Amino acid sequence: MRHRRKGQPVTTKHITHWIAGKGWTGGAERHGDVYDPATGAVTGQVDFASADVVDQAVDAAREAFQQWRHTSVAKRTGVLFAFRELLNARRDELAAVIVAEHGKVHSDALGEVARGIEVVEYACGIPQLIKGGFTEQASTGVDVYSIRQPLGPVAIISPFNFPAMVPMWFFPLAIAAGNTVVVKPSEKDPSAANFLAGLWQEAGLPDGVFNVVHGDKAAVDRLLEHPDIKAVSFVGSTPIARYVYETGTRAGKRVQALGGAKNHMLVLPDADLDLAADAAVNAGFGAAGERCMAVSVLVAVDPVGDGLVERIKERIKGLTVGPGCAAGSAMGPLVTGAHRDKVTAYLDSGVADGAELAVDGRGHPVTGAEGDGGFWLGPTVFDRVRPGMSVYDDEIFGPVLSVVRVASYEEGLALINANPYGNGTALFTNDGGAARRFQHEVEVGMVGINVPIPVPVAYYSFGGWKSSLFGDTHAYGEDGVRFFTRGKAITQRWLDPSHGGINLGFPTNS
Ligand code: NAD
Question: Domain check: are 247 and 272 in the same one?
Fold first, then answer.
C-alpha cells in the first residue's frame, strides 16, 4: 500500500470499487500501485476500501438480496446464460486485462478465462443442481421434501495469480443459487474483477447482486466481521487462509479457505522420460510457477534422476521468456518486483543449504522486453534437494523446480504424505497397478495420473487437503452448490377429520 503520489503520470488508470451497479465516486484515503510486470512501470492506482466503503457494498448486496432471492430460477438462469455469452465474446479482451497487470502470457490468460467459463456453464444448470428430494407418504398421509435456499450476501476474497478464474470458481454458483456477492480481489491485479462486473450488468444482473471492493487487510477484516456477510470463500496463502477461516468462523460465518501448495510430481522408473520432462517443464514454469497447482517438486525414483534433469535442462534452453503480450513468449515476468526479489533470494539460500543449482534462471535471456525494469527471473532448477532446505520446505511460488531423488515408490509416497501441504500431486508411470495404489495411498486432494496439473473440471470440486484447505467444502461442483445454499426439510400433511385427537407422544411413522 502507498499513498497516491503527486506528479504520477496522468496516463495511469484509476481503479475503484463497484457498488450497486456503478463505480464508487468517493475519495479513497489509501491507494495501491498497480504495475505492468513486463516493464516494471506503475500503470495505475487502485483505491483501498475502508470499513465504511465495505459497509456500503454489503448494504447494496443486502438490499439486492431481497429481490434476487425471490427472482425465479428461470430468470436467474437467463442472466447466467447471457453472462456466459458475453464472456465468450469478450474473452480475448479479458485476457489482455489480466496480462497487463499479472504478466502471464496471453494464451495462459485465455486458459484461465476458459476454466472460469466452465464454472459459469455448470452454474447455468442450477435448476437441476438445487432440485430437492420428495418422499410421498413418508407416514400415512404425510409427505416429506427438501429444498435448498440461498444464504444472503457472501464474500469472495481472491489471490493475484488467477484474477478472473478464482473469483469465477465461486460467484457463478453463488449468484445462480440466489445469493448476492461482494468480491475482494487481489490489490495486485484488480481490473479483471471490474471487467467482470461490467459484463454482469450487460447480461442483465440487477444492480447490487455483484459488487467489488478493492483493498487489503482492512477490507478483508471488515468483511470477516460484518454481520450481514453469511459466508466467505477465500483463496490465498496458507497463513492468511488459516486466519480467514478462524476469524470468519468465530464470527459465525460459513467459511471455505483454500491455502498454499507444494505440489510433488512422482516419476517412476517405467515412465516415459520425455513425456515426464515435458510435463515437469510445463507444470513447473507455466505462469512463471505462480499457480497453486504448479509442480514445484519433482520426485525422481532411482535411476531416472539424471535422465530427467538432463531432459529438463534441454527443454529450458528453448523456452522464450518475455512479455505476456508478445506472441512468442512462453513465460512472462513475476507479478511484482518484491515477489521477484523474494523468489530470487531462494536461489542463494538453496545453494547455501547444499542443493545443486542445475539451472540458474538469472542467466536466462529475456526476449522483447521494453527497458530493463521488468520483474524477470528465468526457469530455475535445483537438483538433490532434501526436506529441511528452504527451497523444499517453503512455498516459493515462482519458476523454481526442486528435484528430490528417492530410492523407491514407497520413499516418494512417504515424502509426499509427510508434506504439510496437500493441494495437488501427479504420478508419471505406465504401470496401472502402481497408479491405482498411488491414488489410494496419497494424502492429497487432487491427483493426476500422467496429468501434471489435475485441476478438476467444473462438475467435480477443487480443493486440497491438510494446510491447503481450511473448512470442509471444496470449491465449485457439488460442494460449491452445497456451500452457497442451506437445506430445509418440510414435513407436510393436508388435514382431514381423521387427523384430530390429542396425542403427546413423539411423532413416529405409521
Ligand atoms: P495472499 O494470501 O497474499 O492474498 C490473498 C488475498 O488475501 C488477497 O485478496 C489479499 O489482499 C488478502 N490478504 C493479504 N494479506 C492479508 C492479511 N494479512 N489479512 C487479510 N487479508 C489479506 O495470496 P497471493 O499472494 O495473492 O496469492 C498466492 C497464494 O495463493 C499462494 O500461496 C498460492 O498457493 C495460493 N493459491 C491457492 C489456490 C488454491 O486453490 N489452493 C489457488 C490460487 C492461489
Answer: no
ipTM of this complex > 0.95?
A: yes
Sheet with 180-184, side-by-side order of all strands: 22-23, 18-19, 210-212, 180-184, 153-157, 231-235, 254-258, 469-470
Mean residue pLDDT across the chain: 96
Residue 457: inside a domain, yes or no?
no
The residues assigned a catalytic role are: 292
pLDDT average, residue stretch 13-40: 98
Instruction: State pLDDT tens for residues 383-395.
Output: 999 999 999 999 9
From 160, 162, 234, 343, the mutation candidate for ligand 1 (largest count of ligand atoms within 8 A of CB) is 160
**Helices 73-89 & 165-176, crossing angle to 10 degrees?**
160
Q: How many domains does the chain have?
A: 2
Residue 8 lies in a domain: no
pLDDT at 96: 98
Segment 305-330, tens digit of pLDDT: 999 999 999 999 999 999 999 999 99
Ligand 1 atom closest to Cα of residue 236: 30
Q: Are residues 282 and 409 in the same domain?
A: yes
Determine what percent of the chain falls in helix, strand and coil, rounding each to the nearest 5: 40, 25, 40
Q: Which atom of ligand 1 is nearest to the CA of 238?
A: 32
Q: From ligand 1's centre to the CA of 236, what distance in Å?
A: 2
C-alpha 292 to ligand 1 mean position (Å): 10
- Expressed as residue numbers, the domain containing 120 is 13-259+468-489
The confidence band for 7, taking pLDDT boundaries of 50, 70 and 90, is very low
Closest ligand 1 atom to Cα of 258: 41
How far from the centroid of its chain's Cα atoms is residue 200's Cα?
Answer: 20
CA-to-CA distance for 232 and 249, rounded, in angstroms? 9
Same domain membership, residue 315 and residue 234: no
The C-alpha cell of 41 is what?
A: 512501470
Q: What is the pLDDT of residue 8?
A: 45
Residues with CB under 6 Å of ligand 1 are: 157-162, 166, 184, 186-187, 216-217, 220, 235-237, 240, 258-261, 292, 395, 397, 423, 464, 468
The residue contributing the CA closest to ligand 1 atom 16 is: 217
Domain of residue 377, CATH code:
3.40.309.10
Nearest to 329 by CA among 371, 287, 360: 287
pTM: 0.96
3 state DSSP class of 381: strand
How far is Cα 55 from Cα 219, in angstroms, rounded to an integer?
A: 10
CATH number for the domain harbouring residue 64: 3.40.605.10
Pick from 186, 214, 460, 465 the residue to mutate for probing ligand 1's pocket: most ligand atoms within 8 Å of its CB. 186
* Residue pair 483/463 in contact by the 8 Å Cβ criterion: no
